Amino acid sequence: MNTLKYSTLLFSCLILLFTACKKDEEKEDGEELDLKFKTEEGYIHSNTTLPTDSTFTIGIEADTESANDPIISFNISESLNGGSSSSIYTESLEDVEFEYDFVHTLEDSVSGNEHTFTFTITNRDGLTEHKSLTISVE
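The chain above was modelled as a monomer; its predicted structure follows.
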């Protein structure tokens, strides 16, 4: 009977050991980069409609898990009504964490126009992460 208890205890410990030592799954390309909008008061973080001449702030927080592959580039591009986009801000970096507050005045006076801002970070390996937000003119 003692042998059965000892064997059961040993087997249970081995099962626990093997399940606790599971290898972490490797991340897919791009998952090591994280880009998100700041959601605190005063920041726009989702699609919205604003009157002309409104000044707004979009806050960006970005990071990478690997110091060997830091964020090397940050870009903001803008497109109007789904058209082709053009770069309106670019910054070269060498950081694992990055924050930026984009302050912009909506000078468009055509009601219904949609301005899509795309924020892009790139790491040293060339992996990119994008987030977009659309501001419509009231």
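Residues 22-27 have pLDDT under 50 and may be disordered.
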